Amino acid sequence: MRATRSVREMMDKQMVMEWAKMLMSYKFALDEISTKLTILNEELQFVQHYNPIEHVKTRIKSPESIVEKLQRKGVEVSKENAAAHIRDIAGVRVICSFTTDVYRVYEMILRQGDVKVIEVKDYIKDPKPNGYQSLHMIIEIPVFLSDRIEHVKVEIQLRTIAMDFWASLEHKIYYQFHDDMPDSIRDQLKETADMIGALDKRMLGLKEEVQRFSEDALH
Ligand code: GTP
Ligand code: MG
Fold this sequence. Notes:
Elements: H1 2-48, E1 53-60, H2 63-73, H3 79-85, E2 90-96, H4 99-110, E3 116-122, E4 135-144, E5 149-160, H5 161-177, H6 183-218
Parallel strand pairs: 2-5
Antiparallel strand pairs: 1-2, 3-4, 4-5
The structure holds guanosine-5'-triphosphate and magnesium ion.
Guanosine-5'-triphosphate (GTP) is lined by residues 88, 121, 128, 130, 132, 136, 157, 167, 170-171.
Organism: Paenibacillus lignilyticus
Domain RelA/SpoT: 58-181
Pathway: Purine metabolism; ppGpp biosynthesis; ppGpp from GTP: step 1/2
């Protein structure tokens, strides 16, 4: 009895170690992407006195959420299945001031030789029915470990400050109601999302107008 329990305890510990090791690779992948984004932002700041990125947030999905997502997908809980079925264990959110910056950063990520793009979903061009806007990418990046190279998937979400403002409130509201959201709340969220879209366009127009002023001043 005691021996059985200690074997189980050992196995749990071994599993915990294996999962921790797996999550470490995702952390390294996030470090790599963060460094790439910092380099791009600082180079543009230096060369063009302009930084397209406002800020970057990274997060690793907790083991509890990974297990819950695997169960929701109806697949057996294992680290192999986590790597195969969950593409957002590592997540990066890039917040920009303007939509033009979002696409600029997106293009720069596409041009990185060691980044393999798995999927792109443009919810800015085609917002979700609830109004959600963001540019999503699933990419794969090589992580060079002491004895092997791992190809790690990372979900990148690129959006404007205004889109991020909307998404964070919508997320909180959705968490409260799930699929029973009252129609009036749902309608207001859609309406405010449209306002966010219009606001982003006007802010960009304003910025471009100011730019023309300073260009004219140079001539
Ligand atoms: P999962 O939902 O993560 O299983 O992936 P998916 O294949 O449906 O991908 P999608 O690109 O639609 O969404 C991925 C992530 O984007 C989500 O985990 C959220 O972080 C974010 N997201 C997608 N839709 C919404 C939305 O309607 N509101 C908010 N606030 N965030 C969203
Ligand atoms: Mg989803």
